[in-house]
Known about the structure:
mainly alpha
Amino acid sequence: MLSLMEISGSINVIGYALATLGPALGVAWIFASVINGTARQPEARSAMFSTAMIGFAVVEALALFGFALAFAVK
């Protein structure tokens, strides 16, 4: 029989695994939009790409916060 401490550790890891879905989808949608926009209007590539990199940094920060909280919360 598993004790409560062993179960709570597993729940943190499962919670982080579910929390990674949001940033993963966010990164995919950001770069899919840049590719789509570049295909439609190639001369606007530099403006779209710089904005996409800012969005990418924000989305990745959310993933890192989730990673830190998965191990910090007990």
